Amino acid sequence: MAVFLHTRVRVSDLDGSIDWYCDHLGFKVLSRSDKSPAGNQIVHLELPGNAHTLELTYSPDFELQVQEDLMHFAI
Q1: Fewest Cβ atoms nearer than 10 Å: which of 17, 35, 36, 65?
Q2: Which pTM does this prediction carry?
Q3: Rounded to an integer, what distance in angstroms lies between the CA atom of residue 39 and that of residue 33?
Q4: Does the pLDDT of residue 73 top 70, yes or no?
Q5: Bridging pattern class, strands 6-10 and 28-32
Q6: Is residue 74 domain-resident?
C-alpha cells in the first residue's frame, strides 16, 4: 500500500509562511532544521489529528517564479 507522507512547498519568507499556516490554518511546527552553510532551511508542519505533514523549504538563492496559469492550490 502506498503512503502519502508530506507535501513540499518552496517559500520565499519562511517565518512569514510558518506564521500564516499556524495562525490561519491551525498547523503546528513539528520540526525545524538548522540552517545549512548555504542558508537552506526545512520546517515540517503538522495539522493535529492528521498524519500528513507540510514541508516548507527555504533557500536564500532560489528565485521564486509564479506560474500564471496555476488554477488552484488546495489543502
Answers
A1: 65
A2: 0.77
A3: 11
A4: no
A5: unpaired
A6: no
Q: Is residue 19 in a domain?
A: yes
State residue 74's pLDDT score.
66
- Say if 40 falls within a structural domain: no
Amino acid identity, position 43: V
What are the pLDDT digits (tens) for 30-70?
A: 999 988 888 899 999 999 888 889 999 999 888 767 777 76
* Closest residue by Cα to residue 11 from 74, 66, 70: 66
Number of domains in the chain: 1
User: Comparing C-alpha atoms, which of 5, 15, 11 is closest to residue 52?
Assistant: 5
Question: 11 lies in a domain?
Answer: yes
Give the domain range for residue 7.
1-29
